[in-house]
Amino acid sequence: MDLALALKAIVLGILEGFTEFLPVSSTGHLLLAEHFLGLNFGDEQFDKTFAVLIQLGSILAILGVYLRKLLQIAFALPSDPKARNFVIGVLAAFLPAAVIGAILHGFIKGVLFNPLVVCIALIVGGLVLLVIDERAPAPRYHDATTFPLSMYVKIGFAQCLAMIPGVSRSGATIVGAMLMGADKRAAAEFSFFLAMPTMAGAFAYDLLKNYKTLDTSHVGIISVGFVAALIAGLLVVKGLLTYVTKHGFAVFAWWRILVGAAGLAGLWVYG
Q1: What does the alpha-carbon distance between residue 217 and residue 98 come to, in Å, rounded to a whole number?
Q2: For the chain, how long is the longest CA-to-CA vector?
Q3: What is the dihedral of CA 184, 31, 166, 99, to 10 degrees?
Q4: Fewer Cβ atoms within 10 A, N terminus or C terminus of the chain?
């Protein structure tokens, strides 16, 4: 692996780690970076696979931050109905994306992975986030581990919108939770918990489908991107909840609109 490829992997890994848990769409940002900045590896199929596989770094970032809480929940499962409700809720929220994602995997990667879809989704999602940030229903739920089971399921279906690149998995989850009465912090925190099985499932599915096409050089590139995503993800996870509790999501909404509009302008000028 030469230096140029390593630098591309580092930049894309940092971009993945910083944007995965923000409601701005990591996939959309990676795709636009590849299209406009040439941050790709010259193999369209591997570029898409790389974007999925380096998410493992982001998954480990959440596990690192929430390990103690996850262990507490795990040890409480035999005796605590609330712990069981939460674990069942996360799994129930994960299932819609698992089923629909597996069925539409080819269509999503073959048709929806293009810059125009991303730019439109970024702008529309930014406008939605602005409205929800200001006009969401009065919060009734303040702890992501105590939502009703039906609410977990509905959030899971909301997450499926993120199969459109540019929508944002965390953004769809957060908006869905806030519309159902979660406060901003709880909505963001549940997006972290739901990310673990969702991203792990996407990682495993993509690896299973593409491992035969990966060679030694690919493994090196993915490893570099993974480490960069892990470090960046740790920084975001630790700071996001504090920020959104005080300031909300408006800055991320405007960022989405700015990036989407710049992307549309770039497509109009450069194609």
Answers
A1: 30
A2: 61
A3: -90
A4: C
- The residue among 163, 160, 158 whose CA lies nearest residue 174 is 158
Is the pLDDT reported for residue 37 higher than 90?
Answer: no
Strand-pairing partners, residue 141, are 182
Q: What pTM value is reported for the model? A: 0.88
> Among 101, 175, 168, 166, which residue's Cα sits nearest to residue 136?
175
Report which of 117, 125, 121, 127 is spatially closest to residue 35, judged by C-alpha positions. Answer: 117
Q: CB of 236 within 8 A of CB of 21? A: yes
Contact 38, 75 (CB under 8 A): no
pLDDT for 66-93, tens place per residue? 999 999 999 999 999 999 999 999 999 9
Q: Report the DSSP beta bridge partners of residue 182.
A: 141
Nearest-5° Cα angle at 154, 184 to 240: 25
DSSP character at residue 178: H
- 61's tokens: 């970032």
Instruction: Determine the pLDDT at residue 207.
Output: 76
CA distance linking residue 247 with residue 237, whole number of Å: 16
* pLDDT band at residue 4 under the 50/70/90 scheme: confident
Q: What length is written for the chain?
A: 271
Q: Which of 168, 174, 176, 181 is nearest to 243 (CA)?
A: 174
Rounded to whole angstroms, how far apart are CA atoms 248 and 254? 12
- Residue 160 clears pLDDT 80, i.e. is over it: yes
